[in-house]
Amino acid sequence: MIRAALRTGLISLALALGATAALAASFKATVEKPPADQGDTFELVLSVIGRDSLEPPNISPLNKDFEILDRGKRSRMESLNGRMVEVNEWVLTLAPKRAGHLVIPALTLGSETSAPIEMNVAPGSTAEPPDDGPIALSVDVLGTPPFYLQSEIPVVVRMYDRVGALEASADQPAADGATFTPDGTLKRFSRIYGRQRYRVVELRYIMRPQRTGTIQISSVALRASIPTSPPGAQEQARALGRPAMPWLGGGFDSGRKVTVFANPVEVTILPRPAGVTGWFLPARAVRLKETWSSPPAKAKVGVALTRTLRLEVQGASPAQLPPLKPAETDGVRQYADEEHPEAAQVGGAPGAVAEVHITVVPTRAGSITLPAVTVPWWNIATNRAETAQLPPVTLQVAGSADPAGLAPPPAPAAKSAPKPQATPGDDAPLPWRDIAAIALVVVIIASFLLFSGRRAGRRASAIPQPPERPVAAPPARPGRPTPTRPAVRRPMVMAPDERAAAGAVEAACEAGHATAAYRAYLDWNRASGPGHSGTASARTPAMAAALHEVSRHLYAGEGDTWDGRGFRSAFTAERKAALKPTKARTARGLAPLYPKAR
Questions:
Q1: Average pLDDT for residues 489-502, to the nearest whole number?
Q2: How far is the C-alpha of 222 from the C-alpha of 225, rounded, in Å?
Q3: Residue 40's pLDDT band (boundaries 50, 70, 90)?
Q4: Rounded to an integer, what distance in angstroms lies between the CA atom of residue 26 and that of residue 45?
């Protein structure tokens, strides 16, 4: 019967996991590094999660507004709801056929459909070979002027090859007054210009101007080796729209060495506008949004709320976005996580977004107002300063049952590392399919242990147990008692020295090591007297608040920095409180252990 139950449980578990994978599968479309103008190429990623598809998605609707230059497929693993699932992606290299408002239509994969993506493509120079030679090189500045100091300007170097170069290498762009940094890996695709098919290789760079005025990007050299062929073979290949074949010349060779140059490019860099101070953010549009994990009007003392701020900027790069740091406010503690700005489509145009999660912990009851969040920026379309702003938020904080106003910090496990920081969404309730799968696993394990225990008990009862043999004690020496062997040997635990532990606490606070300070405090607390045997208790309110803060930093993953000076100040007050004499209590009715002689 138990075997039948196990078999049924395994089948049910397999069906539940299969249903979970099927439900987790989804088909979506995303754009990586949206095009800066009409002459720019970009990648469209079509991904399916939780399964694979032998049939590729239907991409024919893309031919209306985009030219498909290249296509490929890749596979990777991703964590979803605590489980590793397979993600299969089709990567398409696209080029806009025209400027203006374009839409990547909804694409289908079997019965699933992706959401459409809108984008605005600025007019620009179309990417074409600068000459009709067998191999050519061009340098193009992407984006739309004006360009300001401290901005990031995308630059692309393209090699056009129509004869099948055996090898090629290009220099990195250089300019007096600007630096260049590679941006991503190179792209390779084929494209037809006129009646000729070219192999195009793109290398992207980020130009960072260091001064104002006109900056000239020097001519970039391309050194290549092109195949040799007999007279007429190359012209015939051109007529057919194919690259020349190196073996037409009677065998493979190292080819003919050639060097081509790209024309120099000038970029005008404008200075920061007069009167603009602080962080300078040139952009075309800026939006600032916020969300709360729970209503601010229902806040409680010591209960954390999560505030999410999102900044969306059109026409700027991720490095130009200012940090979103909360202003210090009396009555609350705020801990902001690290921001990760990234390039994205904002209002259908290239831009950047940044998101930060702020943990807000009220420390007193009553009405607390968080100040407005403002982001000043420069509108490059109207050439004037503007401000994106969120209004002030008022917290109606209810009192806490804890007299100190804060929940006591959790007692850490001995010599344990801090818990990893939770990712957004970890506290969300599990779906019913995950709960069912977990319950099935628990039932199967319990049934297996019960079945194994019964079989082991039957085998143990069937085997006759040998009679116990008396253990001979070692012979006793004359005049000495018989030695006895202890059942358990316990190691000797040395109590920590109070002064050494206090010095360790102060040294850890000075170095800013929260973990070392917390462990040294436990050692000092153990050595400071009875009633504090290595626990995270405190004699003073200041020490209780300091322990609460370090526990949040170590075990709740809140806060990027830790206030070592505040902890040291609270510890100094704690040491003074520990030195105060306490009235000793003597038990009544008990005679002294060593009575004095009369």
A1: 63
A2: 10
A3: confident
A4: 13
10, 443, 452 from 5: Cα distances, Å = 9, 10, 14
Average pLDDT over residues 418-432: 44
- Say how many C-beta atoms besides its own lie within 10 A of residue 511's C-beta: 11
CA–CA gap between residue 544 and residue 302 (Å, rounded): 13
Give the pLDDT band of residue 144 (cuts 50, 70, 90): confident
48: helix, strand or coil: strand
State the amino acid at position 94 in one-letter form: L
- The maximal CA–CA distance of the chain, rounded, in angstroms, is 133
CA torsion sign for 354, 397, 539, 415 is: negative
Top pLDDT among 125 and 248 is at 125
Tokens of 109: 């994969």
Residue with tokens 């992407």: 142
Alpha-carbon span 218 to 172, nearest angstrom? 10
Question: How does residue 240 score in pLDDT terms, banded at 50, 70 and 90?
Answer: low
Q: Decide: residue 598, CB within 10 A, 0-12 exposed, 13-18 middle, 19+ buried.
A: exposed
What average pLDDT score do residues 168-187 get?
90
Q: How, if at all, do strands 100-104 and 117-121 pair? A: antiparallel
Question: Mind giving me the DSSP string for 166-177?
Answer: SEEEEPPP-BTT
Mean residue pLDDT across the chain: 77
Q: What angle do CA 41, 46, 52 make, to 5 degrees?
A: 145
Confidence check: pLDDT of 17 > 80: no
Rounded CA gap, 572 and 527, in Å?
A: 16
Q: Which residues contact 289 (CB under 8 A, 6 or more apart)?
A: 309, 310, 312, 390
% of the chain beyond a pLDDT of 70: 71
**DSSP per residue over 268-297, as a string?**
EEEPPPTT--SS--EESEEEEEEEESS-GG
Which string of b and e fits 38-58 if b means at least 16 CB within 10 Å? bbbbbbbebbbbbeeeeeebe
3-state secondary structure of 52: coil
Distance from C-alpha of 230 to C-alpha of 544, rounded to nearest angstrom:
89
Q: Does the pLDDT at position 490 exceed 80?
A: no
Amino acid at 226: I
The region that residue 152 occupies, defined by phi over 0 for left and psi between -120 and 50 for alpha, beta otherwise, is beta
Tokens 């008396």 correspond to what residue?
470
104: helix, coil or strand? strand
The predicted-structure confidence for 75-95, as pLDDT tens digits, reads as follows 888 877 778 888 889 999 998
pTM of the model as a whole: 0.53
Q: What is the rounded distance in angstroms from the CA atom of residue 161 to the CA atom of residue 279?
A: 44
